């Protein structure tokens, strides 16, 4: 090898080494423009929000130990308790009284004692009942008091208790025993011996108080897909009201439009050739109706949202701060997400914003479908908010928070990463203007929003709960429905109640109605309700008096009584509805927040229905009442299994009390009618299936508060718009170099089922 060749190779080697060194030296170095910046420091409350914090797992366990040692009765773990046992149904935070909390938050008063609310099922008593106890102080309980009579006027009858997981297991065992009495029928109709069929509960359970009789719908169970779309046409009615499981019985059987006294009678009819059977084949896993498995290989990745210098919000304990906003967040195992002490620029706007109930009411020509009125709070909206999938349910870089709950067990469970918080760029201006006359300029502000999200899976449906906080001082609340539709076996005049979506599957019509509590405190607790709407007035034009002008005229009204402020569902609302303060803004208008409802609700259950009072909140798209400590929720978990004598009837809240300069609560119903169709297979999509409401400042400020945003953009024709110092948008090219190293994908949501 010549010297020249050696020198060339040596030079190339040195150049390669130099390049590698440069790469290694710069690989871990973060550009200065990408250095993570701490969020704006707005947190000076020093842990005050913990007064609203959900119970920790340790606190729940402490409550269980206390109850086991101080009630003087044997307690069986609810996960294995029979109806004839005593057990702990649930343990949750006992939210302190508002007056106590405000003395603590605003007036330097003592911190309210931290307490839990425990729900107990007493089956092993002379008079079985459900009782509720307040237990405290936490974390080391020393007292308990029975608050059942105080809350409900008496003991809660035992038949109103929610159905536990253990009870469902015992019901399924009974159904399996009964199915064995019809082996030839099952082989013919379903290619089954019954063990591979699954049941879906309906509710409520009967037709009068004291009933505990439930229709169960049977489906083919195919691994890896939703069974809700594969009904086999068989439904059974089970009486499970007796304390002794051995006395439970199957009362009726329904198949393909006919009723039978038992599975034995069904078998006998089949053997005699007197039964028309629809012969279904076991659906193969790769071709089953409703499979969500991808049909194409992955394509190129879509857009990715990230924060170039880290999150611009901060989270401390149960409190979030973001660009003037401050929110305390939590989760009830029954009713789901709840927010407290929502402030903007240091002023409380909302004391409590909480989900109350989710109703799904079905129609069908099968008994299970036609009798279904699910009140999801009874099943557990918060309890079934499972782990969120990073990058799909929420942005990959969102902050994920664990939630703990204790229900139907003596040991707390954790739904990891089941609530997410993120800043969302909606790719829409919050405001903008391009000036094309006189002076030439552009001004605008991106619509960046703080989002708090959780998703509840309630059997077949998935509800996406969003709470959004805008730079204009507005709060947006939104729910989307997705997941699987529920279905009935298609027979007879099935299309009177929905659409056929499979060979033997009827997508059954239903309505979703969602109820919220909004305790607004607009510039103080004392507010009134004002409506504004338009009328046309016909006037002579004042400059000639020869012509007539139709002039829009603003009509304002202060509502005086609760009855005036109860607006029926599906009746047009006044276009402007506002909680107003006695105090004016700079322009002498009352400082106000406007309620703006976006809903496509179906029709409410007729008021002459025997169970209507249990969901009487659904009569109203908006009802404004005086706030009362003894009216904390619009419904009860006990209403599901006894809607005929509801434990809480919202209609009783409206008794024509004065609502002028009082502490007021807005109760809001949103929803939509859903007639399932072919495009609901495999899942209902979120597009067009979102409803909610806004809380918008209306003369609350002297101008739009977003003018103070550091994200504002303004440049004129005389400026160099490409200069980063003059135009923040010109800086984005360097921000693109700040793409974060994403954490490895992980999902543990199947581990805690």
TrEMBL record:
Chain intervals for the UniProt region annotation (Disordered): 288-308
Keywords, in A-Z order: Copper, Metal-binding, Oxidoreductase, TPQ
Please list the cofactors this protein needs: Cu cation
Question: GO CC annotations?
Answer: plasma membrane
Q: What is its EC number?
A: 1.4.3.-
Which residues are in the Copper amine oxidase catalytic domain? 305-706
Q: Which InterPro entries match?
A: Cu_Am_Ox_Cu-bd, Cu_Am_ox_TPQ-bd, Cu_amine_oxidase, Cu_amine_oxidase_C, Cu_amine_oxidase_C_sf, Cu_amine_oxidase_N-reg, Cu_amine_oxidase_N2, Cu_amine_oxidase_N3
User: A Gene Ontology MF term for this entry?
Assistant: quinone binding
Which residues get modified to 2',4',5'-topaquinone?
461
Q: Where is the Copper amine oxidase N3-terminal domain?
A: 161-258
* SUPFAM superfamilies, per the entry: Amine oxidase catalytic domain (SSF49998), Amine oxidase N-terminal region (SSF54416)
Where's the active site on this chain?
Answer: 376, 461
Which Pfam families would you find in this protein's record?
Cu_amine_oxid, Cu_amine_oxidN2, Cu_amine_oxidN3
GO terms (BP aspect): amine metabolic process
Gene3D superfamilies noted in UniProt: 3.10.450.40, Copper amine oxidase, catalytic domain
The record's top EC class is oxidoreductase
Domain called Copper amine oxidase N2-terminal: residue spans: 75-143
Q: How is it modified after translation?
A: Topaquinone (TPQ) is generated by copper-dependent autoxidation of a specific tyrosyl residue.
Give the record's cofactor note, including how many are bound. Contains 1 topaquinone per subunit.
Q: Name it.
A: Amine oxidase
């Amino acid at each position: 090898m010549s010297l020249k060749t050696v020198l060339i190779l040596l030079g190339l080697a040195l150049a390669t080494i130099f390049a590698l060194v440069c790469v290694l030296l710069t690989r871990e170095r973060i550009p200065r423009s990408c250095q993570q910046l701490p969020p704006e420091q707005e947190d000076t409350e020093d842990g005050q929000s913990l007064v609203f914090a959900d119970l920790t797992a340790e606190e729940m366990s402490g409550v269980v130990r206390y109850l086991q040692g101080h009630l003087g009765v044997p307690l069986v773990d609810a996960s294995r308790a029979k109806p004839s046992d005593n057990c702990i149904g649930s343990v949750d935070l006992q939210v302190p009284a508002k007056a106590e909390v405000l003395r603590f938050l605003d007036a330097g008063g003592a911190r309210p004692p931290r307490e839990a609310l425990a729900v107990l099922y007493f089956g092993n008593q002379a008079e079985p009942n459900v009782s509720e106890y307040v237990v405290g102080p936490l974390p080391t309980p020393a007292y308990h008091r029975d608050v059942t009579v105080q809350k409900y006027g008496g003991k809660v009858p035992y038949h109103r208790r929610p159905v536990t997981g253990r009870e469902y297991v015992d019901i399924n065992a009974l159904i399996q025993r009964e199915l064995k009495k019809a082996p030839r029928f099952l082989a013919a109709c379903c290619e089954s011996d019954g063990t591979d069929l699954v049941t879906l509960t309906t509710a409520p359970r009967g037709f009068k108080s004291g009933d505990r009789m439930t229709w169960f719908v049977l489906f083919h169970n195919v691994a890896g897909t939703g069974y809700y779309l594969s009904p086999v046409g068989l439904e059974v009615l089970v009486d499970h009201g007796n304390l002794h499981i051995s006395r439970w019985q199957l009362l009726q059987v329904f198949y393909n439009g006919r009723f039978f006294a038992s599975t034995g009678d069904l078998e006998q009819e089949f053997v005699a050739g007197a039964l028309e059977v629809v012969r279904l084949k076991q659906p193969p896993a790769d071709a089953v109706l409703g499979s969500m498995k991808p049909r194409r290989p992955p394509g190129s990745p879509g857009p990715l949202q990230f924060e170039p210098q880290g999150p611009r919000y901060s989270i401390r304990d149960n409190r979030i701060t973001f660009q003037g906003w401050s929110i305390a967040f939590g989760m009830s195992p029954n009713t789901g997400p709840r927010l407290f002490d929502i402030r903007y620029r240091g002023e409380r706007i909302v004391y409590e914003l909480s989900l109350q109930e989710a109703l799904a009411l079905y129609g069908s020509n099968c008994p299970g479908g036609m009798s279904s009125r699910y009140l999801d709070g009874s099943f557990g909206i918060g309890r079934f908010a499972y782990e969120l999938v990073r990058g799909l349910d929420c942005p990959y870089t969102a902050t994920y928070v664990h939630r703990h709950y204790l229900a139907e067990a003596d040991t707390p469970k954790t739904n990891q990463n089941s609530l997410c918080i993120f800043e969302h760029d909606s790719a829409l201006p919050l405001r903008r203007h391009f000036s094309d006359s006189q002076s030439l300029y552009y001004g605008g502000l991106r619509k960046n929003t703080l989002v708090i999200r959780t998703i509840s899976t309630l059997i077949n449906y998935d509800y996406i709960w969003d709470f959004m906080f805008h730079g204009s001082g507005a709060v947006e609340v939104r729910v989307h429905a997705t997941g699987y539709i529920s279905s009935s076996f298609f027979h007879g005049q099935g299309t009177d109640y929905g659409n056929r979506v499979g060979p033997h599957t009827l997508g059954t019509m239903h309505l979703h109605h969602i109820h919220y509590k909004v305790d607004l405190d607009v510039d103080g607790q004392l507010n009134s309700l004002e409506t504004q709407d338009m009328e046309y007035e016909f006037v002579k034009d004042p400059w000639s008096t020869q012509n007539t002008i139709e002039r829009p005229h603003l009509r304002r009204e202060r509502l005086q009584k609760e009855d005036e402020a109860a607006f029926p569902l599906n009746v047009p609302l006044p276009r402007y509805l506002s909680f107003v303060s006695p105090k004016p803004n700079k322009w002498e208008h009352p400082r106000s927040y406007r309620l703006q409802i976006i809903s496509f609700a179906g029709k409410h259950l007729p008021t002459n229905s025997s169970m209507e009072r249990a969901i009487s909140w659904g009569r109203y798209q908006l009802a404004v009442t005086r706030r009362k400590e003894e009216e904390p929720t619009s419904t009860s978990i006990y209403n599901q299994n006894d809607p005929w004598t509801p434990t809480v009837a919202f209609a009783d809240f409206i008794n024509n009390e004065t609502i002028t300069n009082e502490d007021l609560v807005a109760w809001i119903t949103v929803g939509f009618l859903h007639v399932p169709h072919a495009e609901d297979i495999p899942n209902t999509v979120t597009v067009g299936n979102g409803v909610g409401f806004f809380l918008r400042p209306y003369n609350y400020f002297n101008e739009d508060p977003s003018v103070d945003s550091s994200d504002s953009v303004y440049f004129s024709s005389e400026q160099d718009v490409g200069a980063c110092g003059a135009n923040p948008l010109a800086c984005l090219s360097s921000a693109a170099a700040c793409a974060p190293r994403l954490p490895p994908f992980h999902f543990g949501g199947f581990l805690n089922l």
